[in-house]
Specification:
The protein is built from 4 helices and 5 strands; from the N terminus they run ααβααββββ. Helices cover about 30% and strands about 30% of the residues. Helix 2 packs across helix 4. It has one domain.
């Protein structure tokens, strides 16, 4: 494990790693993304979130703007996976902001827009 990953793993010990509730997993995803972009593989292996996509979806509904890029990634056993999601935290909800954020398709990522005029999508 390289030094950066070891540092992240050490930071992760502050969270209740045995709590597998959706809210605890969302908290781990946000903590992880605040340190920089993370892949599905990293969120599973280092942060204990077995299915990151549903947690990211829920966070978007809560007002977090998270972009998704597709990358190639290796699992710890050395297997190459193509099209692995790489999540990037673009912005967090602010007090008084609209929480009706939706995921919009884009060529290589997700664009988060606030739907102020049309209601929830």
């Amino acid at each position: 494990m390289d030094k950066k990953k070891a540092t992240e793993a050490a930071q992760n010990t502050n969270l209740k790693r045995n709590d597998n509730s959706a809210s605890a997993q969302r908290a781990r995803v946000i903590q992880a993304l605040r340190t920089g972009p993370k892949t599905t593989i990293e969120l599973r292996e280092l942060w204990g979130v077995m299915s990151p996509a549903p947690r990211v979806f829920e966070l978007r509904l809560l007002g977090y703007c998270i972009e998704t890029l597709q990358v190639n990634g290796y699992t710890p056993d050395g297997v190459l996976h193509r099209g692995v999601a790489r999540y990037v935290l673009v912005s967090e909800p602010t007090p008084g902001s609209c929480n009706c954020w939706v995921k919009m398709p884009a060529p290589a990522n997700d664009a988060c827009i606030s739907n102020h005029e049309g209601g929830a999508a």
